[in-house]
Design brief:
The model has no long low-confidence stretch (mean pLDDT about 90). Strands 3-2-5-6 form a four-stranded antiparallel sheet, with no helix packed on it. Strands 1-4 form a two-stranded antiparallel ribbon. The protein has no helices and six strands. By secondary structure, it is mainly β.
Length: about 70
């Protein structure tokens, strides 16, 4: 199936990875706890409509948002 691979450097805290549509609605999310080092999370997107989405990786101290395309 189709997945979006999200890669980020973790520093041992709690992280939430959320995929949102362009209207700001969360369509899927993943939660990670006590992760350290480079993390790669594969999120299934086979049931999402084609188009652009925003992927946000957030912790208590940081937040990073990137654009992804589901084809």
């Amino acid at each position: 199936g189709f997945v979006v691979n999200v890669s980020f450097d973790a520093a041992g805290t709690e992280y939430t990875v959320v995929i949102m549509d362009l209207q700001g609605r969360a369509v899927t999310s993943e939660y990670r706890n006590d992760s350290k080092g480079t993390q790669v999370i594969s999120i299934p997107v086979a049931d999402l409509a084609k188009g652009s989405y925003l992927v946000t990786v957030s912790s208590a101290t940081s937040k990073v948002t990137k654009n992804v395309m589901v084809k």
